[in-house]
Amino acid sequence: MIDFAKKPLFLAPLAGFSDLPLREVVKNFGCDVTISEMISANALVYEGKKSLKMVQKSPNETPYIVQIAGVDLNNIKKAVEILNGIDGIDGIDLNCGCPVPKVVKQESGSALLKNLDHLKRVIETIKTTSKKPTTSAKIRLGFDEKIPELIARACQDAGADYIAIHGRTRAGGYTAKVDYEAIKIAKEAVKIPVIANGDINAQNADFVLKTTNADALMIGRASIGNPWIFAQIKDAKSVSGALKKQIILAHFDAMIRYYGIQGVSIFRKHLHQYSKGLSEAASFRDEINRIDDLDLMRLKIENFF
C-alpha cells in the first residue's frame, strides 16, 4: 500500500499534535502516509478507552499506521491483538526513538537501542502477532553512540518491512545537528526501505533525499503551524495565503468534529504556531487565549488570516 518508488511523504508521530484532525488535514494537502501519536502498549491493554480514541482514523487516512511503544513482550502481543480487531489500520510501527526520560526509564522508546537483542524480540512479536499488512520501526542513530547500520540490520533481521530513522542519537535529543550521512550508512546496510527523518523542511527535502538515498521522507516538527509543507515539497513552490487560510479553517473544523466544543481551546496551541511571524500575532494570541465560543473563534481566525 506504500509505494516507496514514488518517494512518499510521511507525517511523523508527534505527541500532542499529530492527532486525527491534523492527520486529516495533511492527508488532504499532500501527505501520503499518516501515523498515530505514540500509544503505550501498556495503556492500550490496561487503560483502553483513551488509547482506543487515539487509534481512531479519518476516512481519508489510507495508508494509516498505528505506532506503539513498549518493552514487555506479553503486553506488546496483547496490544497487537487489540489492534488486529480494529479495521482500517494498515500497519503497526514500534517506537524505538522517543528520548523522553519517563519513557526511557521504562526501558521503552530509545532505550531499546541499548539492547538490540530485545529490540529484535519486540519487533518479532509484533510481526508474528499482527494481521496488518506492514510492521515497521522508528529508530534513532543510537542511544549514546551512533550505530545506525547495526540497528537497521537488527530491525530488518527481526522482520521489519521498513524503518524510519531520526538522524540523531538519544543523547542528541532534538538539538544536535542531524547526521544525514549516518542515515545513508543505515540505508546501505539493509535491503528494506529506509525513511529519513529529522529537521526536514521544504528547503532541504531534495538535499536530504539525495544525501541519504532514502526511499521516503518523514516530516515532524516542521509541519506544526505549517501543514502545507507537504504541498510545498511536492510542488516546489510557495503556498498562497488563500490556501493557508483554507487549511487553517479546515483544521479548526476537524478539531471541532473530533473534540467537540473542547476543540476550541485545544486549537489555541495550533493558532499560536500558525500566527508566528505575522503582523499583530502577539495581540491575536492574547485575544484567542480568552475565547471559548466556537463561532467567535472561527470569526477571529477568518479575520486574522
Automatic annotation (TrEMBL):
UniProt domain DUS-like FMN-binding: residue ranges: 11-294
Indicate the enzyme's highest-level EC class: oxidoreductase
User: Keywords for this entry?
Assistant: Flavoprotein, FMN, NADP, Oxidoreductase, RNA-binding, tRNA processing, tRNA-binding
- Record EC number: 1.3.1.-
| Reactions catalysed | a 5,6-dihydrouridine in tRNA + NAD(+) = a uridine in tRNA + NADH + H(+); a 5,6-dihydrouridine in tRNA + NADP(+) = a uridine in tRNA + NADPH + H(+)
Q: Which superkingdom is the protein from?
A: Bacteria
| Necessary cofactors | FMN
Task of the protein: Catalyzes the synthesis of 5,6-dihydrouridine (D), a modified base found in the D-loop of most tRNAs, via the reduction of the C5-C6 double bond in target uridines.
**Which family does the record assign?**
Belongs to the dus family.
UniProt protein name: tRNA-dihydrouridine synthase
**Upper lineage:** Bacteria, Pseudomonadati, Campylobacterota, Epsilonproteobacteria, Campylobacterales
